[in-house]
């Protein structure tokens, strides 16, 4: 897992993503955090009666970091399926388990290094500017704990999807779908029930549960704000339910990735999916979602809730989705 040869190989493959990762963590976010001090000074001078302080840099980071680590996962496992590198990799004296774990540890260690560097820079900026007079530095414990786990979860998901997809194109698309799948599937089922049976089965409680189990929403608000009028500072807090979901995603997808990568499924490299049966499942899912989308569009265009129009839209969408996926799959054969 810590083979020097594998580490160098991964470094060469992923250098673009690593450059972007460290650029964001070591330059863009620290510089943005430093600007808060200048903005606060300006606010105290120009709005002395009602100054303001709102730090959103870490919320921005919780959006940027998943994108960066998904790119990292694609470079580590998706690209090599298309350039023949995976065949060379499996000829090396390592087991599939060691190869997969070496990629996961490689990405995870770089995520930890990037965050450690950002933590150090943030504290240096914090205690050498006016910010330390108004912001409690202990809030960073919550922020960075969430960001680290959240980012590792996205990286693990992207890497795992790469073990079942045969092309980086499908890895990108299916990673995005997997991340948002709880919400996508919930709303597609809800739309079809309402469109076909004309019954509103919407349940706010159930929707909230779906959101609670969807990984994109687990970071929560990571901004810091100070109300100078009431002298109250609002900090991010731990939601232990969210932390549990994030850790669960990491463990679950790490185990799935190990299981899939350990099966030497390389015969379908370059195709959309390396497992034929899984490809059939995705085909059915793609057709279903395409049918739902087109049915919703036809209902919207018709400006009504006519069941017949909705069903016609489903039939059109099913046909379009089937032939589009068939054409797409043929393109990658």
Summarize the structure.
This protein is mostly helical and 333 residues long.
Question: Overview of this structure, please?
Answer:
With 333 residues, this protein is mainly α. The protein contains 11 helices and 3 strands; from the N terminus they run H-H-E-H-H-H-H-H-H-E-E-H-H-H. Strands 1-2-3 form a 3-stranded antiparallel beta sheet. A hairpin with a 4-residue loop joins strand 2 and strand 3. The protein is flat and about 65 Å long. The mean pLDDT is 87.
What's the structural blueprint in terms of helices and strands?
Blueprint: H1 4-13, H2 15-46, E1 52-55, H3 57-83, H4 85-90, H5 96-127, H6 139-161, H7 168-197, H8 204-212, E2 224-227, E3 232-234, H9 240-261, H10 276-302, H11 307-331
Antiparallel strand pairs: 1-2, 2-3
Helix pairs in contact: 1-5, 2-3, 2-5, 3-6, 3-7, 5-6, 5-9, 6-7, 6-9, 7-10, 10-11
Throw out a few tags for this protein.
333 residues; mainly alpha; 3-stranded antiparallel β-sheet; 11 helices
Shape category: flat
Helix content: over 70%
Based on helices, strands and strand pairing, what is the structural class?
A: mainly alpha
Would you list the SSEs in sequence order as H and E? Answer: HHEHHHHHHEEHHH
Instruction: Tell me the strand percentage band.
Output: under 5%
How are the strands of the biggest sheet laid out side by side?
1-2-3
- Indicate the radius of gyration in whole angstroms: 24 Å
The stretches of 5 or more residues where confidence is low (pLDDT under 50) are none
Strands, total number: 3
- Distance from first to last alpha carbon: 33 Å
Largest sheet: 3 strands, antiparallel
Q: On the 0-100 scale, what is the average pLDDT?
A: 87
Q: Helix count, per DSSP? A: 11
